[in-house]
Amino acid sequence: MSNEREVLTYELFGTATRELAQEVADSGFEPDIVLAIARGGLALGMGLGYALAVKNISVVNVEFYTGVDQRLDVPIMLPPTPAAVDLSGLKVLITDDVADTGRTLELVHDFLSGHVSEARTVVVYEKPQSVIKPDYSWWRTERWIDFPWSSLPPVVPGRLAH
């Protein structure tokens, strides 16, 4: 892996969100709900919700990364988690910022399996080693990504952003 990084600006993120929304719309998929994976998928979930005219947005918290290129052995869903029965029969669009290993997307997709009528995944970035191929991705890269919301340290002294 090179030391070069992908740098996503807020302006470029806006472009990516609109282009992804258009790709979802062009595919004919009409989600009933956007399920954003917190924290990385929140901004994309909101943007796609507006662009696709989907007001029903929910959040699932998954912890996997604990630092730069440091992660738990497996991703875990943190409470509160949406009840799968509440999503029963719905078409769900799962959003995240990146499919790096793909294990977070896989966890959430598997959680919904058998409960929803259809679940599709969308990410801003997809990496080649991802164990799940997102249905929609804006850019493929092998580089580390600097996202505009996490490239600067927190404004709270003594706290780490991971």
Binned, the helix content reads 10-25%
Mean pLDDT: 89
Q: How many structural domains are formed by the residues? A: 1
Structural class: alpha/beta
Report how far apart the termini are.
Answer: 21 Å
Compressed to H and E, one letter per element, the order equals EHEHEEEHEEE
Multimeric state of these chains? single chain
* DSSP helical segment count: 3
CATH class: Alpha Beta
Report the uncertain regions.
none
List the helices and strands and how they pair.
Blueprint: E1 5-7, H1 10-27, E2 33-38, H2 42-51, E3 57-67, E4 70-78, E5 91-99, H3 103-112, E6 118-126, E7 136-140, E8 144-146
Parallel strand pairs: 1-8, 2-3, 2-5, 5-6, 6-7
Antiparallel strand pairs: 3-4
Tell me what you see in this structure.
The longest helix is centred in the N-terminal third of the chain and has 18 residues, at 10-27. This protein has a 6-stranded mixed β-sheet with strand order 4-3-2-5-6-7, with helices on both faces. A two-stranded parallel ribbon has the order 1-8. The protein contains 3 helices and 8 strands; from the N terminus they run βαβαβββαβββ. It has one domain (5-146): 3-Layer(aba) Sandwich (Rossmann fold). The chain has 162 residues and is an alpha/beta fold.
Short description:
The protein is an alpha/beta fold. It has helices spanning 10-27, 42-51, 103-112; strands at residues 5-7, 33-38, 57-67, 70-78, 91-99, 118-126, 136-140, 144-146. The mean pLDDT is 89.
